Protein: NADH oxidase
Amino acid sequence: MKIAVIGCTHAGTAAVTNMARLYPEADITVYEKNDNISFLSCGIALHVGGVVEHAEQLFYSNPDQLAQLGIQTHMRHEVLAVDTAAKTMEIRNLATGERFRDAYDKLVITTGSWPIIPQMEGIGLENIQLCKNYNHAQAIIEKAKHAETVTVVGAGYIGIELAEAFQMLGKKVILIDNTDRILFKYLDRAFTDPIEKLLADKEIRLALGQSVQAFKGEGGKVQCVVTTAGEYETDMVVLCIGFRPNTELLKGQIDMLPNGAILVDEYMRTSNPDVLAAGDSCAIRYNPTEQPLYIPLATNAVRMGTLAAHNLVQPAIPYRGTQGTSGIKIYDLNIASTGLTEQGALAAGMNVKTITIIDHDKPEFMPHYENVMLKLVYEEEGGRIVGAQVLSRADMTQSINTLSVCIQNRMTTRQLAFVDFFFQPHYNKPWNLLNQAGLQAMEQERKERDGKVLAQ
Ligand SMILES: Cc1cc2nc3c(=O)[nH]c(=O)nc-3n(C[C@H](O)[C@H](O)[C@H](O)COP(=O)(O)OP(=O)(O)OC[C@H]3O[C@@H](n4cnc5c(N)ncnc54)[C@H](O)[C@@H]3O)c2cc1C
Structure:
């Protein structure tokens, strides 16, 4: 069996390392257009901020390791075209310019994503940087050395992490977003308000609710960002406004969402039986709405890559989908979320209720305890949990992983109220916060029911 894999970062590395183990007789060939594999972009902000000193620490594999597993890895080779009917590919060696063809029995697409680059005046100016791969990280670090003011466009996870890193490096930082709140996809306003306050206290200038319209500069270098609300002088810009799936190669040959994300079934099979796909190039089943959605995360990429390997020959292990669970640490605040926010659920047309708990992480008789805010979003009818958020100076982020499991298993608030969680004063209270959230949701339901009865 000849297996070809296009792209080798997280989904690709997970796919090939598992395939080498599962199909020792197979001929596995990887084409990767970059000069490195397995770079952990999640470490870029930590590297920029100097927390991770050496970029080499952000790789967990390399072509030599893959070669030892019997995988033929062609670095700096770009796949230019795929013919899924003939099962062939056209490839260019980027070092020599040579073009050649190769054939496959099974193809795994792990071409990932690329940052969205808005087409507008001045976009080609120097010092407007992307933030995706190792080379971008090095360029950002180098350019930042000469920048006094850095503007980050996009206040999602990546933008916020970079804003913090630049501020800690002593830069003046401007953070621009066209929505009126930071992190709006992940958190509701009660959670973003204290984070925005913290950023403002650190003198990060928040320019929210305004869209970038152009970049201006002299001598080819960016000097000013023009938005719908004003102009900001800057020495450098980092664009963090999202990602697009890298799937032009397969357009018209396999089914995709309108944004180009490949549609795969639970076994990572595309609409072509001999083509599987995984990672940022794909849409994925989003459990809160039970619809395919584009959620580019390394966590999904490694799981999907592994599953593509297991399901390559025949369906073996299904993917249970995702809640888009994610976490972030901003200065001393620990934040995590899973599933839908209240705002997101309402926008999706769902009928939801919420419970927000503000409590301490440990009993008050302990010498140290911290405030915790936890919010649960659940369907009004039946109480199915569809989302949760947590924020605390204590690390309560694992509670969101627990709630991710609850969402995946379609648990209700009533079930959550009585889940068996341990109690130990060093860690929590006798009624675990998650039990409390379930209990309060039940109480809210009872009061509303009684209210309705009285009103009749
Ligand atoms: C700054 C930053 C921080 C992040 N932080 C987190 C985090 O904390 N947690 C989290 O879960 N996720 C995080 N992510 C997201 C995560 O990095 C991505 O989800 C992950 O990289 C996806 O892996 P992938 O292998 O599917 O795709 P990609 O990483 O996009 O890799 C695709 C590979 O395919 C290659 N390729 C593409 N086209 C071709 C072609 N035609 N021929 C040959 N090769 C090709 C590319 O060169 C690339 O190496 C972060 C992303 C960024 C940018």
